[in-house]
Amino acid sequence: MRGSKSMAVAVRNPQNEIILHEEPLTAKIYTSNWWQWPFVRGLAMLWDALGLGMRALMWSADVAMQDEEEGSVEFSGPLAWTTIATSLAFAIGLFILLPTFASKWLAGFFGDHAAVDAIFEGAIRLILFIVYLWAIGLMPDIRRVFGYHGAEHRTINAYEAGEELTVANVQR
Length: 172
Fold this sequence. Notes:
By secondary structure, the protein is mostly helical. It has a domain at 1-73. Helix content is 65%, strand content 8%. The chain has helices at 28-31, 38-64, 77-107, 114-136, 140-160, 167-171, and strands at residues 6-12, 18-24. The protein has a two-stranded antiparallel sheet. Helix 3 packs across helix 4.
């Protein structure tokens, strides 16, 4: 979770304890007035969210790989970057290349109109995304992630409403 001055990540380790990592946000996009301009801020925050998310995932993988006997194991180096590159290639293939080529092929049956191609591409991407979310939602670990993500949103809503952060207020 990212706030205006710091970010925090909470992860459950193999011993079933919740480990918290917090760090201040000191980059120029948080402290400079120029970065607060609407369009500039949006692009910068999108890029920053990607970086923070990658760091949080790498840290959570490190925590998940901890072993009581062997101590700390780090998810880094070639293994980590190969995993990330493979995942990125799969996502680009599934959500960008497949819909593009499939829509061009389908649009060929309708006279190759650009509007038909765009409609098919959008529909294919939406269907793939919904099926992907449904399929990964069948995995118990991802179901837990979805639950935590929903809890984050409820917590933020309670906080922004000025409520005391209790379980009852957050659930409401």
